[in-house]
């Protein structure tokens, strides 16, 4: 089996490397020449745990290749995966499908022999049909099938998620296409991964329904956390108490500064638009989007309140700016709203992130970037944890206290215990838990 992966980003590179680990010969294609050059030199352009070894092993084994030559890669492939970006379109929140359609046109020109064209990018219902139309119009005699195979991996645990997914969703119209997909995912059949075969349209919708449901779940616990603060209850115990109910489930009940990242913000918006246009508005998701947007500003207010009502002229130490740990992805990170709001309120910021600073520097002007967590704290008026990287979970609290001007810690990820922090002499503020004096 040979495949071409069009788009070598977070999804394309991980999926390509994992398929090659399954024994498939994979050619990863990207338009970004510098990305492909780096990969061919053995450098990994993104931070994703375990990816360097996986790429190195499979490239050495002669199963994984990187090129900018889409034509050659597609011509020899049994299946071509489209894994290009589908960001929010400026102005209306719809998914911007220009990269998908441009890729479809290029693929059409290069097809040679029967090929399954698989959309792995997250795309609105109807996109597969449009991809089919573009290919048909460009090459009326091309022998191809279209498939929708959305990806559910999470950055930071992407390899494990791809290799041992909860399920694989495949939307196909023909048995021939289903056969090719079955062959590609054969190793997952062997570990009894549920494979959901359905129509192309349903498969496209499943991805959005999954992401918007998860965004709603996070938003629900965030609002419960706010209520806990007012009522003196503990949101962690609430999450445990409800999560043990199998109908609710334990996961995604951790409160924080609001969801971010390259998927939930754009996918919630895109589904809202799709639903409005279809005449079946998803009011629950419209509300989720609104609550989450406002939450990020509210987190800046929380920091300001913890600093006695004003941060004007104060210096704040910030730990973590990526949207979650174990990734360098800054797309739609809550820090991109929280940090400018604190700057507008007059604070100077000193920040550290283990992997995100390179990207963050471009997006967050005016921040002083430090080499270590402790370096941010020297002479700062308060410490704020925005992203829960493991290395922030066990800070030397005595050292933190001596470095800070005042022992004020705002923990937007609840990685410390209120009681322990009070005993250590901190004025500790977290999310949805009783903050002890
Ligand atoms: P990304 O921006 O990291 O990567 C996209 C890549 O495609 C870029 O390297 C770009 O240069 C390349 N590209 C664009 N047009 C091309 C073309 N015509 N030919 C060759 N290369 C081209 O994006 P991503 O985060 O990997 O996301 C890709 C898709 O997967 C999106 O639809 C996203 O919603 C979905 N998805 C992402 C995640 C995630 O965690 N990032 C998870 C599941 C699904």
TrEMBL record:
Top-rank lineage group of the source organism: Bacteria
Active site: 263
Secretion signal, residue range per the UniProt entry: none
The reaction(s) this protein catalyses: UDP-alpha-D-glucose + 2 NAD(+) + H2O = UDP-alpha-D-glucuronate + 2 NADH + 3 H(+)
The keyword S-adenosyl-L-methionine is assigned to this record: no
UDP-glucose/GDP-mannose dehydrogenase C-terminal domain boundaries: 317-418
Keyword NAD applies: yes
One example GO MF annotation: UDP-glucose 6-dehydrogenase activity
UniProtKB keywords: NAD, Oxidoreductase
One BP term from GO: UDP-glucuronate biosynthetic process
Enzyme Commission designation: 1.1.1.22
Functional pathway: Nucleotide-sugar biosynthesis; UDP-alpha-D-glucuronate biosynthesis; UDP-alpha-D-glucuronate from UDP-alpha-D-glucose: step 1/1
Pfam family for this entry, one: UDPG_MGDP_dh_N
Record: residues binding NAD(+): 30, 35, 86, 122, 155, 266, 331
Annotated substrate binding sites: 152-155, 207, 252-256, 260, 324
InterPro entries listed in its UniProt record: 6-PGluconate_DH-like_C_sf, NAD(P)-bd_dom_sf, UDP-Glc/GDP-Man, UDP-Glc/GDP-Man_DH_C, UDP-Glc/GDP-Man_DH_C_sf, UDP-Glc/GDP-Man_DH_dimer, UDP-Glc/GDP-Man_DH_N, UDPglc_DH_bac
Class of enzymatic activity (EC top level): oxidoreductase
Protein family (similarity comment): Belongs to the UDP-glucose/GDP-mannose dehydrogenase family.
Full protein name: UDP-glucose 6-dehydrogenase
Source organism: Elstera cyanobacteriorum
């Amino acid at each position: 089996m040979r495949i071409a992966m069009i788009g070598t980003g977070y999804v394309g590179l991980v999926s390509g490397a994992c398929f090659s680990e399954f024994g498939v010969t994979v050619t990863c294609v990207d338009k970004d020449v510098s990305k492909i050059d780096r990969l061919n030199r053995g450098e990994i352009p993104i931070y994703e745990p375990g990816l360097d070894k996986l790429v190195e092993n499979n490239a050495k084994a002669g199963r994984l290749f990187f090129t900018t030559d889409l034509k050659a890669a597609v011509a020899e492939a049994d299946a071509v995966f489209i894994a290009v970006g589908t960001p929010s379109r400026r102005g209306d929140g719809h998914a911007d499908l220009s990269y998908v359609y441009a890729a479809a046109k290029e693929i059409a020109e290069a097809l040679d022999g029967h090929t399954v064209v698989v959309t792995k990018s997250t795309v609105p219902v109807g996109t597969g049909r449009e991809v089919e139309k573009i290919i048909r119009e460009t090459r009326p005699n091309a022998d191809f099938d279209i498939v929708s195979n959305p990806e559910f991996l999470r950055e930071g645990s992407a390899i494990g998620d791809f290799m041992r997914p909860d399920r694989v969703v495949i939307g196909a119209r023909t048995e021939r296409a289903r056969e090719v997909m079955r062959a590609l995912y054969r190793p997952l059949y062997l570990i009894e991964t549920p494979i959901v075969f359905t129509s192309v349209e349903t498969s496209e919708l499943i991805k959005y329904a999954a992401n918007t449901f998860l965004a709603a779940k996070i938003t629900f616990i965030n609002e419960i956390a706010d209520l806990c603060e007012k009522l003196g209850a503990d949101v962690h115990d609430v999450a445990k108490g409800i999560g043990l109910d199998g109908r609710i489930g334990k996961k995604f009940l951790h409160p924080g500064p609001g969801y971010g990242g390259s998927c939930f913000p754009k996918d919630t918006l895109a589904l809202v638009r799709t639903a409005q246009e279809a005449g079946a508005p998803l009011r629950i998701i419209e509300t989720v989007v609104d609550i989450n947007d406002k939450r990020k500003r509210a987190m800046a207010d929380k920091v300001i309140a913890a600093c006695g009502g004003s941060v004007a002229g104060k210096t704040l130490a910030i730990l973590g700016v990526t949207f979650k740990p174990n990734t360098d992805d800054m797309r739609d990170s809550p820090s991109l709203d929280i940090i400018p709001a604190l700057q507008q309120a007059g604070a100077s910021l000193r920040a550290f992130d283990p992997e995100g600073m390179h990207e963050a520097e471009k997006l967050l002007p005016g921040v002083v970037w430090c080499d270590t967590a402790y370096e941010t704290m020297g002479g700062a008026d308060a410490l704020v944890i925005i992203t829960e990287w493991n290395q922030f979970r066990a800070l030397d609290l005595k050292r933190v206290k001596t470095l800070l001007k005042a022992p004020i810690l705002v923990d937007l990820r609840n990685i410390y215990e209120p009681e322990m922090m009070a005993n250590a002499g901190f004025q500790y503020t977290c999310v949805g838990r009783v903050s002890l004096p």
